[in-house]
Amino acid sequence: MYTFLLMFASLFAEAGTITDSTGAEVTAESPTKIITLSGNVTETVFALGLGEKVAGVDSSSLYPVEATAKPQVGYHRRINAEGLLSLSPDLIIATDAAGPPEVVEQIRKAGIPMAVLSSEATLEGAQSRIEQISKLLDKEKEGHVLVWEMQDKIKMVTKPKTPPKVLFIYARGGGTQNVAGLETSANAMIELAGGVNAVTEYTGYKPMNAEAILAAQPDYILFTARGLESVGGAEEMKKLPGLSETPAAKNDNIISIDDLLLLGFGPRTAEGVLQLSNAIQNK
Asked: Among candidates 74, 119, 80, 118, which has minimal Cα distance to 102?
């Protein structure tokens, strides 16, 4: 039914025009110089076969590798209008995490079409972004294929009868470690994979606390690949306060997954869920 509704809606939709998350109607007229602001947006445009039209990306755009060779425009949460406009784009695609808001408004006043999409970190949010981007770029058929492939892959995920407790640590070097609570992209991925967040006392991220980690008693400790590398690998990670005495550390249940695959909520989200699900079941 969902597939049918997508196909039916596309028959009556105006290709190249969407209503974005701000309520603005955005039209892309055969763009040839696209700036993508967010790793999942960049990944989607490349997955639709339009990588050659990408004129600039933000620093979170790490996949595919071809994207890293594109001109960089800084981090999407701290964009600079002059830097973006210097690339003479005819379309900018961002999420509502991009900012600051006054810069977004400045870009729109300059007459550059800018689509601001929801940054919702859910499977449904990832699918919606793909559908909107593919419609905006007149690649609806290719977008439907990406969504269908995602739906097929998520069906391959098997969830354990007893959900293991998973602790996600966002690390950027020895001095920066934050633990994910509820209402985070990490929490969403843990639940999709059949686990439960070991931390349920708060939402968002908080600095790592040794006592709280010991109390959580996680079965698995999860990092992004770059995060685990930044603390020196699994053995060095165990030296961090509170971690060595957890069941996860004692059983060497340390998981690392590619950053965008785990937290990006782009076209490869189902692949990331499957990888995490297999890892927390030791498959």
From this structure: 80
Can you give the pTM of this predicted structure? 0.89
Structure token digits, residue 257: 């997954």
244 and 222 together in one domain: yes
Which range, of 53-57, 125-129, 156-160, 188-192, averages the lowest pLDDT? 156-160
**263/209 same-domain check:** yes
Return all residues near 66 (Cβ < 8 A) that are at least 6 apart. 46, 51
Q: What pLDDT sits at residue 256?
A: 96
What's the confidence (pLDDT) of residue 15? 54
Same domain, 105 and 229: no
Check pLDDT > 80 for residue 267: yes
The parent domain of residue 241 ranges over: 165-280
Q: Are 79 and 105 part of one and the same domain?
A: yes
* Confidence (pLDDT) at 163: 96
Residue 177 lies in a domain: yes
ω into residue 164 within 30 of 0, thus cis? no
Distance CA 157, CA 280 (A): 12
One-character DSSP codes across 127-178:
HHHHHHHHHHTT-HHHHHHHHHHHHHHHTT----SSPPEEEEEEESSTT-EE
Task: Look up the CATH number of the domain holding residue 64.
Answer: 3.40.50.1980
Rg (CA), the chain: 20
- Residue 32 contacts residue 52 (beta carbons within 8 Å): no
